[in-house]
Specification:
The chain is built from five helices and no strands. It is globular. The relative contact order is 0.09. The chain has one domain. It is an all-alpha fold.
Length: about 120
């Protein structure tokens, strides 16, 4: 439990510094560091998002940045999408999920490199 908390804290800190979602770092850390399966690590990462999202929404509501109509629409669409996601994960081999997540990580890495190149000062 302590190892998972430390991994979550470190993954969140690094993800915040890099500007990526914490799951990109948290999921591999749970697979490698804790020994969870890919599916269990992804589910744990998604569950960890709930309190953070609630706290973030509450904080942003205080600043007047929450559009409730859009939030309700996203929530209504997210519920059946989550059920569909569970059905897909249960229907395909875990190796397919691992490869799909690896592809997602490569896309995020490419986006980070592209963004860094766009904001870097020109070379002399």
């Amino acid at each position: 439990m302590i190892t998972t908390a430390v991994i979550g804290f470190l993954a969140g800190a690094v993800a915040g510094m890099l500007g990526v979602g914490g799951g990109i770092l948290f999921v591999p850390a749970l697979v490698i560091g804790v020994g969870l399966s890919q599916v269990d690590a992804e589910a744990t990462s998604l569950l960890a998002i709930v309190p953070v999202a609630l706290l973030g929404a509450w904080s942003q509501h205080r600043y007047g940045n929450v559009r409730f109509g859009d939030g309700v629409l996203i929530g209504v669409l997210a519920a059946p999408a989550a059920v569909l996601g569970v059905a897909i994960v249960n229907a395909v081999p875990e190796r397919v999920i691992e490869v799909a997540f690896a592809c997602l990580m490569l896309l995020v890495a490419a986006q980070l490199v592209r963004r860094a190149r766009q904001t870097a000062p020109p070379a002399r």
